[in-house]
Specification:
Layout: E1 14-18, E2 26-32, E3 35-44, E4 58-65, H1 77-80, H2 85-99, H3 104-107, E5 111-120, H4 125-146, E6 159-167, E7 170-173, H5 177-180, E8 185-192, E9 197-204, H6 211-237
Parallel strand pairs: 4-5
Antiparallel strand pairs: 1-2, 2-3, 3-5, 6-7, 6-8, 8-9
Helix pairs in contact: 2-4, 4-6
């Protein structure tokens, strides 16, 4: 039995509320159970120096956790004067995951920065950030298209992410914190809407896993991604 009482292949409740900030070109609040992440997308008419005169745009991301997003207060990284290794790893993951669904030539020489701020954490924050980040990106690109700044839609696919793992010897979908902290195997799966893989992060957290178990986790991830893509599409059409 999972701590939450969910079935092995059952997701946490998902909600994606769009237009939650006044100034950002695209924004949403994604809630995956008790994990809540604010995602905003900012359009800028420039690209990083290494992309200048390339004819291509750039999508990048930043990620952070509020001090009381967890059970005890975390010190702000700005107070420490530098970002931690975990933060840097996650925001790079978000950026390259979102870029996998973008035709950067069609985007043109402009940059979109997706900011993901964890308001409340209960496992799967990076997956929620990628899934919600795509929605914010989609809304920002819609503004470019509506304004006539681009003629071809640069977003070639939804991008979504889900965690799966082996908890108490059973493959489970969408780990919350009690499961994540005790899982023998923990994985994050980032995919396009058609099931093409963007990135897979799998690690043994106390027990190893077989190829057959990996296949079971991939099947769970396929199910979860399809549900997340449906939630993304419902959010942007609302």
């Amino acid at each position: 039995m999972r701590p939450s009482g969910r079935k092995l292949d059952e997701m946490r409740s998902i909600s994606i509320e769009t237009g939650v900030t006044k100034h950002a070109e695209g924004s949403c609040m994604i809630r995956c159970g008790d994990t809540h992440v604010l995602c905003t997308a900012t359009l800028e008419p420039r690209v990083p120096p290494f992309m200048r005169n390339s004819g291509q745009g750039w999508v990048t991301a930043e990620y952070g956790m509020l001090p009381r997003s967890t059970s005890s207060r975390m010190r702000r990284e700005a107070t420490a004067g530098k970002q931690g290794g975990r933060t840097i790893e996650i925001q790079r993951l978000i950026g390259r995951s979102l870029r996998a669904g973008v035709d950067r030539v069609a985007l043109g020489e402009r940059q979109i920065t997706v900011d993901c701020d964890v308001i409340q954490a209960d496992g799967g924050t990076r997956c929620a950030a990628i899934t919600g980040g795509w929605v914010a990106l989609r809304l920002a690109v819609n503004k470019l298209i509506k304004a006539g700044d681009i003629t071809t839609d640069p977003l070639i696919s939804n991008v979504a992410a889900i965690s799966c793992g082996i908890y108490a010897g059973q493959p489970v979908l969408d780990l919350d914190y009690p499961e994540d902290s005790e899982a023998g195997v923990d994985g994050n799966f980032i995919m396009l809407a058609n099931g093409q893989m963007v990135e897979t992060q799998m690690s043994a957290e106390g027990s190893t896993y077989s190829r057959a178990q990996l296949s079971e986790l991939l099947d769970l991830a396929d199910k979860g991604i399809s549900e997340l893509v449906a939630a993304q599409n419902a959010a942007i059409s609302g």
